[in-house]
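Example 9 (inverse folding). The structure is encoded as follows.
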């Protein structure tokens, strides 16, 4: 297993996801969390593994100075096009995370790392690099694919043999993340550099709904309920992704 970067097929898949309820819920939760956590002043922002630039564009449109770093050229091209259509300026860097430390003249106020760790061969290796890229009074916005949610979904579907084998990685060339993360293990790995200050679940119920219920539900209702329950003590940990806002130690 090695770090997974994305090709044209994955880019088209990502565009499809963001065109539907899953992507809309994800963006709504991430944006609500960041709106609550961040100060109302322009920030220098680095989006590591920026993908198609949805979050970066949202931040840039709010007056922040945004740098997008993405190792997959098809993804970065999509982000450039999205920014050009919006008439918003940004800096684009075609590079994996390993090439980012030491590249900039100053650390960033906010570092975004969304849906990256689960595609890495060694997810914990990126954590010190993210700290080096963040100012001492800055923020890390970390979203990752939640192993607990994957286990629960397999329990509901009766995939007990899969659970006994502890096989959760997506197959090679699959668009299922290759390494879902155990939140307790990740928090232990973060502890040397980061303090988790805010936690939310992303899609705490949507992905568990029967498909016919999903199809009938109004997006506005889904967004309202997902936002209302994203930090519920019983439901937040079931989010398909978890979003943690961290401060440097």
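The amino acid assigned to each position is listed next.
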């Amino acid at each position: 297993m090695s770090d997974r970067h994305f090709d044209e097929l994955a880019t088209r898949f990502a565009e499809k996801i963001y065109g539907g309820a899953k992507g809309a819920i994800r963006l709504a939760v991430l944006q609500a969390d960041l709106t609550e956590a961040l100060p109302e002043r322009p920030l220098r922002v680095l989006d590591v593994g920026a993908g198609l630039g949805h979050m970066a564009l949202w931040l840039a449109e709010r007056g922040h100075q945004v740098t997008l770093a993405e190792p997959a050229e098809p993804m970065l091209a999509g982000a450039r096009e999205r920014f050009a259509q919006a008439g918003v300026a940004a800096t684009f860097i075609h590079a994996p995370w390993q090439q980012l430390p030491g590249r900039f003249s100053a650390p960033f106020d906010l570092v975004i790392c969304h849906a990256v760790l689960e595609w890495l061969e060694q997810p914990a290796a990126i954590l010190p690099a993210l700290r080096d890229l963040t100012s001492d009074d800055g923020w890390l916005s970390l979203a990752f694919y939640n192993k607990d949610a994957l286990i629960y979904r397999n329990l509901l579907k009766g995939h007990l043999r899969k659970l006994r084998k502890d096989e959760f990685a997506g197959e090679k060339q699959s668009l299922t993340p290759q390494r879902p993360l155990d939140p307790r293990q990740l928090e232990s790995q973060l502890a040397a550099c980061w303090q988790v200050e805010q936690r939310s679940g992303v899609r705490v119920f949507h992905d568990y709904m029967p498909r016919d219920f999903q199809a009938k539900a109004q997006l506005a209702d889904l967004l309202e309920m997902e936002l209302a329950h994203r930090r519920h003590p019983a439901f937040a940990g079931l989010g398909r992704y978890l979003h943690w806002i961290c401060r440097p130690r």
